[in-house]
Amino acid sequence: MVTTAPLPFRTTAPAAPRAHKAPRLRDLGPNWYASVMGTAIIANAGAALPYQLPGQRALCTLLWALAAVALAVLLTARAGHWLHHRDQARAHLLDPAVAPFYGCLSMALLAVGAGTLLVGKDLIGTGAAVAADTVLFTAGTAVGLVMAVVVPYLMVVRHKAEAAQASPVWLLPVVAPMVSAAVGPLLVPHLPAGQPREALLLACYAMFGCSLLAVLLLLPLVLGRLITQGPLPLALTPALFLVLGPLGQSTTAVNQLADVAPGAIDAPYARALGAFAVVYGVPVMGFALLWLALAAAMLVRAARRGMGFAMTWWALTFPVGTCVTGAAGLARHTGLDAFAWLAAALFAGLVTAWVLAAGHTLRGLFTGRLLPATRQPLAASR
Q1: How far, in Å, are 47, 62, 68, 82, 328 from residue 55 at the CA level?
Q2: Cβ neighbours of residue 279 under 8 Å, at least 6 residues apart?
Q3: CB-based contacts of 211: which residues, under 8 Å, 6+ apart?
Q4: CA 30, CA 74: separation in Å to the nearest integer?
Q5: Within 13 Å, how many C-alpha atoms sit on residue 287's CB side?
């Protein structure tokens, strides 16, 4: 008979779970780029307003500088997130509620880049501003086009989202190319005359088209979900304002492109593009105001039912800011004071929303509520 000796009993304790480095970065998602977008758009919209008050441009320059610093800090922090919390970063990409926010990275780069050329040049000079915007525009456009494909692809093959989960957040990755179309015209006059200018102009129109058609495919899902499933959860209600983004940004884009078209393309096309800016922009701005009224009513309803602060409050800033720049563009091309007044009224609402969102965000950071220093082991965090 063959006998086997028992294995010696292990007296050593199992290894303790590894603590995460930089624990405060673990919950830092791509949605934080919305705070950069919301700050930069105040500078950009304030510079575009038909009415300019004493000190307004200096304040816009200060806010642009704040957005630029915030972007640099956030890019560094997000790099740390990917370095120390790759499991969480991958989980974000596979989460249908978080992955669309990766489009915000592109829009943050583009918004700060546009502000550099609009008001930042007062501090750093035109040459440096053009160089900085070129880098930020190129990087933001590349990221935006990639995310406009990658995120919808993941939604189809990995996320398996249901119709009841549809939300305006789904629009974020496909809106990013529209932002490129809106801010790209700022660089057109700085390119050599001829084909370089025409190529960038038409590339912006191509991005305008791809973004617009993608939004038109997704927007019925959002509206259908609201009608058939009822209001969004209270914390998500401010996200309804995200619908204003493609509306205001597309109106801004056609007006900005019409401004630079005479120096980039033949006269017959330039005149046609100038007419298109008004023919397209006025009806879309009308729908934007209709959606603004609906979203505001839903926001009041949510506030009455106890809606607290969440990072979704930043959805009240950038989308409204795009409507400011859109209305300002229509004021330039139609000469109507009504659009100038509309831009000023929307800008007042934008500043109010920014003060509320920024104030609550700073409070949440200082108290640790937004980014708690949790040191959970990897297995427990899944």
Answers
A1: 11, 11, 20, 41, 19
A2: none
A3: 148, 174, 175, 176, 177, 178, 181, 246, 250
A4: 9
A5: 13
Q: What share of the chain is helix, strand, coil (3-state, %, to 5)?
A: 80, 0, 20
Q: Is there a contact between 50 and 340 (Cβ–Cβ < 8 Å)?
A: yes
Query: How many of the other CB atoms lie within 10 Å of CB of 28?
Result: 20
Tell me which residue has tokens 């998500």. 236
Residue 193 token pair: 């005359």
Report CA torsion sign: 53, 54, 58, 63: negative
Amino acid residing at 150? V
Q: What is the pLDDT of residues 15-39, one digit of tens each?
A: 444 455 777 788 889 999 999 999 9
- Closest to 173 measured CA to CA, from 237, 225, 220, 104: 104
Per-residue pLDDT of 281-303, as tens digits, reads 999 999 999 999 999 999 999 99
CA distances from 154 to 28, 106, 303, 311, 323 (A): 21, 18, 33, 24, 30
Cβ neighbourhood burial of 99 (10 Å; 0-12, 13-18, 19+): buried
Q: Round to the nearest angstrom and report the end-to-end CA distance of the chain.
A: 49
